[in-house]
Design goal:
Topoisomerase I, domain 3, alpha+beta, Rossmann fold, 17 helices, four-stranded antiparallel β-sheet, about 600 residues, 5 domains, about 40% helix
Length: about 600
């Protein structure tokens, strides 16, 4: 008898197989093997009248994979090593069901990094499949099926929108609502007033609050100022800048977008490759831990090794401490995104990695190293200068101790000038300058800032962020202008109708409540069928009401009649854009190019 280990990714099989002897066979499911059928009421694949029992089938592209897995596992011991999250737990259950494995057996193993020690440790401590996690993932899938299958056809029929979804539609609403706020914004004027001295500039204390908003206020200030300025205070203080937390999925994506110029999907693609294993010499090595996580926890042994590395490389003063940060909805089953070994520096791996892999690895390595280093220390000088009741201020900052900045060899600190100045000293200004400015609206969302807010509001999970953005772009609900995400007219229309008919469901608070309920199901603290039942019946009523009341959007007429049947010609859409077609379609199939 052999032991068959089943992972999700074929790339991972090579890395793991080399760790094990000939008594092991490592194979891959290539992701999910089954999908919900389209049977039953509404084609949901779910019996909504009997406890929301789901019906699954092996999808076409996995039929050959499943047949091969059945052959290889027959008569052998099986260990299910799918990814260490709810999605992976669900895939393990589907595999067990298809392969006829007992749920009472300890045939589930998980590891957060694809390294020899982690894999061997997991094999020596198998567990049972966690059915609470499976149920939570199945509930999420059923929710998405109900919303997608009920809402998408309605929007297609009424307003020609292509799809809707539990997370996708809330993200679109966030983008559209911000756009409305920007469009409604009315700029207001304000003045910045500066006193220009020979060696420095000082700003009026009201500049930051933008309170100098009329010419009268400006002139009142300018008329007060006369003669020399008196230095009313000179203060110094030390300030620490705390070392950053290690990466979770959302912060890795944000930095990958902002600092490397990649999309969120690209960041995850290169991180996946690093996780699954890179060929270094004669072996494949997993270089980072699992990259879908919202935990900032670090492995104890890794922390010990890294603190020693910091002391040896930079000195004892640079050794920091472990920071703990927990928040609501965090799944702490695995770790932060980190290197599997702190000894594998980016420089030592550069010739083994593609340029993109190297940049992502360097980002992860530096961030992890920084997180365990000492805080940076600054000295700040703040000076107040007074002239007939008008107060101006100057501030300078110097880096006293680099701390965690030392982990970044390219780090350069902007040095401010400290003034050699004393209290009660009198100084003459060269001039008093003022500048008219206008308040600005909030900036539009970028992919990075949208991911940040999705995480902050508890919408979706780490694995959904990049896909949500990609879907909105693919559906032409938003477009990217430079880096900004701008809603299209179709995106605005979609949110308008969702607000009219589904505002109780498609909003940030309700979506966050859904995520919390899914967390409770994953812990065994809530029942899936009760949660689904309550949602389904309310949602079904909203769909029926919208079907009756939502106004159907008629296609735009072009002002000519069809040469074949005489019906008005209209603008229609297809996956590659727009074209002119007959309004009598499908009875008349006349079409023309839009140009």
């Amino acid at each position: 008898m052999k032991t068959v280990i089943i992972v999700e990714s074929p790339a991972k099989t090579k890395t793991i197989q080399q760790y094990l002897g000939s008594d092991f066979i490592v194979d891959a499911s290539v992701g999910h093997i089954r999908e919900l059928t389209k049977q039953g009421k509404g084609g949901l694949g779910v019996d909504v009248d009997n406890g929301f029992k789901a019906t699954y089938k092996v999808d076409k592209k996995h039929q050959t994979v499943v047949k091969e897995l059945i052959k290889k596992t027959k008569g052998n011991k099986v260990l299910l090593a799918t990814d260490p999250d709810r999605e992976g737990e669900a895939i393990a259950w589907h595999l067990a069901d298809v392969l006829g494995l007992s749920l009472d057996e300890e045939n589930r193993i998980t590891f957060n990094e694809v390294t020899k020690n982690a894999v061997l440790e997991a094999i020596s401590h198998p567990t049972k499949i966690d059915m609470n996690l499976v149920k939570s993932q199945e509930t999420r899938r059923i929710l998405d099926r109900i919303i997608g299958f009920k809402l998408s056809p309605l929007l297609q029929k009424k307003i020609k929108s292509k799809s809707a979804g539990r997370v996708q539609s809330v993200a679109l609403k966030m983008i559209v609502d911000l756009e409305k706020e920007i469009e409604a914004f009315i700029p207001t004027p304000f003045y910045n007033v500066k006193a220009i001295f020979k060696h420095f500039d000082a700003e009026h204390q009201l500049n930051k609050s933008k309170e100098i908003d009329t010419e009268e206020k400006l002139n009142a200030i300018l008329n007060h100022i006369d003669g020399p300025f008196k230095v009313s205070s000179v203060n110094y203080r030390k300030r620490s800048r705390v070392a950053p937390m290690p990466y979770v999925t959302s912060t890795l994506q944000q930095d990958g977008i902002n600092r490397l110029g990649y999309s969120g999907a690209q960041v995850m693609k290169y991180a996946q490759e690093l996780y699954e294993g890179i060929k270094i010499g004669d072996e494949n090595v997993g270089l980072i831990t699992y990259m879908r996580t919202d935990s900032t926890r670090l492995n104890g042994q890794f922390v010990t090794d890294t603190l020693h590395h910091i002391e040896h490389t930079f000195g004892k003063d640079y050794v920091g401490k472990v920071k703990v940060k927990t928040k609501e909805n965090t799944q702490d089953a695995h770790e932060a995104v980190r290197p599997t070994s702190i000894d594998r520096t980016p420089e030592s791996l550069k010739h083994h990695l593609s340029d993109q892999q190297y940049k992502v690895y360097d980002l992860i390595y530096r961030r992890t190293l920084s997180s365990l280093m000492a805080d940076a220390l600054y000295e700040e000088q703040s000076i107040a200068l007074e002239n007939h009741g008008e107060v101006f201020t100057y501030g300078g900052s110097k880096l006293v101790f680099m701390g965690y900045h030392k982990a970044n060899p390219d780090y350069k600190e902007k040095l401010d000038t400290f003034l050699d100045i004393e209290e009660n000293q009198l100084l003459d200004a060269v001039s008093i300058d003022h500048e008219l400015n206008y308040t600005k609206p909030k900036p539009r969302y970028t992919e990075a800032s949208l991911i940040k807010d999705l995480e902050e509001y508890g919408i979706g999970r780490p694995s959904t962020y990049a896909e949500t953005n990609r879907t909105l772009l693919a559906r032409h609900y938003i477009e990217k202008k430079q880096k900004a995400l701008v809603p299209t007219e179709q995106g605005k229309l979609t949110v308008e109708q969702l607000d009219l008919f589904f505002s109780h469901v498609i909003n940030t608070n309700y979506t966050k409540k859904m995520e919390k309920a899914l967390d409770e199901i994953s812990l065994g603290d809530a029942q899936s069928d009760a949660f689904l039942g309550e949602f389904y019946h309310k949602f079904e009523q909203l769909v029926q009401h919208a079907d009756k009341e939502m106004v159907k959007k008629e296609p735009t007429q072009v002002g000519r009649d069809c040469p074949l049947c005489g019906a008005p010609l209209v603008i229609r859409k297809w996956k590659k854009g727009e074209f002119i077609g007959c309004s009598n379609y499908p009875r008349c199939k006349h079409t023309e190019n839009l140009t």
